[in-house]
Design brief:
Elements: E1 8-11, H1 13-20, H2 27-51, E2 60-69, E3 72-81, E4 89-101
Parallel strand pairs: 1-4
Antiparallel strand pairs: 2-3, 3-4
Length: about 100
């Protein structure tokens, strides 16, 4: 999946499949998560690598996408391999999601 003028965002099939299987979200919200998160990664990968590396001097970093839908917070944690950034490519290799209800 391309991210426009920034980095080309390559997404592991398992990452897209995981997001699409979050059945507590409607399809339009799942599509929104994919489009918006990959666009932001394309545009700002350097920022996220600087701020959220998984280890010191690592090219792997974390990116979080948070969505509030029907009183539930969804936090998607994407793990990105930036070792090909010099060639203009980043690889989204993992995702998981935590949910928590909005307190009344």
């Amino acid at each position: 999946m391309s991210g426009g003028a920034g980095y080309f965002v390559h997404v592991a099939d398992s990452v897209e499949a995981y997001v699409r299987k979050v059945d507590t979200l409607p399809e339009d919200k799942r599509q929104q998560i994919l489009v918006e998160s990959f666009q932001e990664l394309s545009d700002r990968a350097n920022h996220f690598l600087e701020r959220y590396p998984l280890e010191h001097e690592s090219y792997t970093f974390q990116y979080d996408y948070v969505l509030l839908h029907d009183g539930v917070f969804y936090q998607f944690r994407f793990i990105v391999d930036g070792s090909s950034m010099e060639m203009g490519v980043i690889n989204v290799i993992y995702v998981d999601c935590e949910t928590s209800p909005l307190s009344p």
